[in-house]
Amino acid sequence: MRLRLFLFALGMLVTASAPAAEPTVLRVMPQGPLIGLDPVATPGYPTLDHAYLVYDTLFALDAELRAQPQMAERDEVSADGLAHRIALRAGLRWHDGAPVTAADCIASIRRWAARDGLGRDLMDRVAAMEPDGDGVIAIKLKRPFPLLAQALAKPMGIVPFMLPARLASLPADRPIEEATGSGPFRFAPEKAEGNFLKVYERNPAYVPRPEALSLFAGGKRAAVDRLEWMYIPALAIATFELYAGTVQYWRSPPAEALPRLAGNPDVTIRPNDALGETAMLRLNHRSPPFDDRRVRQAAALAIDHQAMVAALGGLAMDARICVSMLPCGLPGGPAALTDPRPTEERRAAARRLLREAGYDGKPLALLTAHDQPVVDALARATADQLRRVGFIVTINDMLWPDLARRRQSPASVEDGGWSAFVTRWPALDLASPAWNEALRATGEQAWIGWPKDDALESLRQDWLDAPSTAGAERIEQRAAEIVAYVPLAQFRLPVAYRHTAITDPPPLPVMALWGVARR
Q1: Nearest Cα to 242, choosing from 262, 226, 225, 224?
Q2: Domain shared by 156 and 203, yes or no
Q3: 64 domain residue, yes or no
Q4: Residue among 231, 331, 322, 293 at smallest CA distance from 441
Q5: Are residues 305 and 390 in the same domain?
Q6: Is the Cα dihedral 315, 316, 318, 324 positive or negative?
Q7: Same domain for 315 and 266
Q8: Does residue 302 contact residue 386 with C-beta atoms inside 8 Å?
């Protein structure tokens, strides 16, 4: 494998030294291999990066987190708020040449909603959704839903991408193995080399919106003819590729690579995303001891957030404290928040709660993944904090795919289950009570950890019908009371690229690379 990578890199070096010629090629290294092509059935960061190249959405969020028309031309809403007529932009076509129709989009919305929590919230309010000709989606609601456009602009997690009806009509839990969208790039599977190389080509039929790009909204332009997605797991080889210039962009360089890259004057290292990431401790609400709210509250009180920031060290950029359930510093969100109580006061309160709950000292199974340095550092720091208030903690160390499988189990710790794990989300994924999956408290239908709290869910549903700042604050307060999760830290991760070879990539939480051109 190493020899093959070396020969491939040598060939690219020869190509890079030759005079520039068409087609223009952009070579990038993603944050992981592309395992699945279906953003609904097999969501994940690499699949999401892939999907934003290939597909498009009816609406998209701008930098102020407002929903703007994308594939849609306009959304006409009746005076009573019960009827929406979403008109599509003229001339939209799928990569196979077929026109985009309202029927395609309706099938896509229904498939997305079958798997996504916000999609289910939307469909609970839909009385009818039918095409009015080929170019208009007619939606009748049971009650007004002011967040309809924002729901269809959901940017992260399971995103409502539009697909042809022949694909969108397939079951939502059956992964689609064909990537036919209407976006600025076309996937070229015949040119792939396993997980090592994926190829995308500019879609000549794509007509971008006229507006300037603003976060996910506006004109999405493919500024190169060919994008080559190279997954190189060997750190030394990946570092060499960017340093030498055979690759122009590295989505998530690990901390070990940064000193070497920083010594190259042609390389820029900066935060990959203006909004950043949030790390959280997720607790198992269905299994002892965290099925007891007092024990969950003790775990939350045990965390010294300054220690969490310190644990990140050089693994992340701009690390800071935010104890809010919704990320700090985003448009319309809370400012940076800290807990004013001294650490020892919080720990004393945690110990009292453990005594009241009758915690019996059974070891917690805290999952961590040593191939995820940020997650691993925070998990080990969390174990230290929990032990200081009286928890007995066993760290279960594994690879991330194994952790992802293990955390699906609702079994007790004794039967191979788990108590807690640390994970990270793009802050945008948690920015709104509408799509913050970690806030859902619907028991078995909730995200892993399965919190169940009718009061929180009632507050969230009320907010969906009438969003307000006060309503969001009530949701946060209730989520903190039941400890839906424990915020640990906010930070940004680096991206590295050769500024002498390409124009500056947009600061997005995905590897969309819209508008990035070769110099």
Answers
A1: 262
A2: no
A3: yes
A4: 293
A5: yes
A6: negative
A7: no
A8: yes
Average pLDDT per block of 10 residues along the chain, 519 residues long: 50 49 90 91 91 98 96 97 97 97 98 96 97 97 96 96 97 94 97 94 95 96 97 95 97 94 97 91 96 97 95 92 89 71 94 96 95 95 98 96 91 92 94 93 94 97 93 93 96 96 95 95
Q: What is the CATH number of the domain that holds 78?
A: 3.90.76.10
Domain annotation covers residue 514: no
Tokens for 79, please give them: 């005076």
What is the number of structural domains in the chain? 3
pLDDT value of position 14: 45
Q: Which residues pair with 500 in a beta bridge?
A: none
- Residue 44 maps to a domain: no
81: which strand partners? none
DSSP character at residue 316:
S
Show the DSSP H helices in 174-290 as ranges.
235-244, 258-262
Give one DSSP letter per residue of 453-464, joined into a string: -HHHHHHHHHHH
CATH number, domain with residue 259:
3.40.190.10
Q: Give the count of beta carbons closer than 10 Å to the beta carbon of residue 291.
A: 14
Domain identity same for 449 and 355: yes
Q: Check residue 4 and report its DSSP letter.
A: H
Spatial separation of the C-alpha atoms in residues 452 and 443, rounded to whole Å: 4
What would the two tokens of residue 109 be? 């919305």
Strand positions, DSSP E, 355-493: 364-369, 393-398, 420-426, 486-492
Residues 315 and 375: their CA atoms lie apart, in Å, by 10
Query: What's residue 22's pLDDT?
Result: 78
Q: How far is CA 61 from CA 172, 201, 219, 486, in A?
A: 24, 25, 12, 27
Write down the residue that tokens 């190389």 correspond to: 197
d(CA 349, CA 356): 11
Structural domain range at position 143: 59-168
- Contacts for 78 with CB less than 8 Å, ≥ 6 apart: 84
Q: Under a CB-based contact definition with an 8 Å cutoff, are residues 152 and 59 in contact?
A: yes
Q: In terms of domains, do 110 and 249 share one? A: no
Nearest CA-CA partner of 149 in 219, 217, 214: 217
End-to-end Cα spacing for the chain: 31
Structure tokens at 349: 């309160």
